[in-house]
Amino acid sequence: MQASVRENAICVTPVLCGQIGGQCAGISISTSVSSGQASRYNAHMTPLPSAQRLAGLCTNAAQAIALEIVAETGSTNADLLARAPHLQQPTLLWAQVQTAGKGRAGRAWHTPAGAALTFSLAWKFNLPLQGLLGLPLAVGVVIAEALRTFGVDARLKWPNDVLKDDGKLAGILIETVADKSGQPASWVVIGVGINIARASDLSAQTGRAVVAATELAAEPERAMAALLDGFAQALPRFEQEGFAGFVDAWNALDAYAGQAVNILDQGQVLHSGHAAGVDAGGRLLLDTAQGRITVVAGDVSLRIREG
Q1: Do 228 and 264 lie in a common domain?
Q2: Is 222 a catalytic residue?
């Protein structure tokens, strides 16, 4: 039995056994799970987070965000992108399992139950698309700062990774839907995956060093509330100031500041030098033998230079 989603209501299925009840501060809250999803999800012995508890933990700044928690979906980004033109308010879609998640450059990503906080946040900016330059880096600042309040030594890697102990802790994928009315406005879907367990399995899946913030596993709702509070404060600020309002914070969290690095494109070295942070446009600053250059994020990658 699938729960329906209604504005300003808490939607409950029998599977949840009365876990959620009552209305919280006018927030739109939904927890949705089908019987088939519940069987697969419950096999992992991980309880579905409580939307009501999450709402109660959010500060006033985040009260306008609609909260939706599902046991399983293909891709939270794809789900919200399809709905974005019809959304009435910022919306969180938090899935415990993603079977067709997306990473940078369209790379496939599967999230098993209990391994990560995987969610998307749809937010409307009164900005043209070009006004969103640097948003992935600002989102990285929000995530890192929220995680650090839980004792996680989160750092940032240009352009869109969050690291801990030199391993990948979280990834960010941002997609947009332009306003078809011709107005300078864009719906943005911010997709985030934060590893909280099973780091060795994720390392095997990706073929790279992956780490987990196990500190978040015991209280996922509290971690999500901290993230939503951060977004609720930061995204309006980004609309007013752009990435210039976040550049100092990003540089303070730069994992590779001053280190010798290579910039790669499909495995080929494009540039070598020493990482020197980012500028107000979100471009990487690289000190090379020929002087300082700027690097624009496409599908290039930054790696520590060996030797």
Answers
A1: no
A2: no
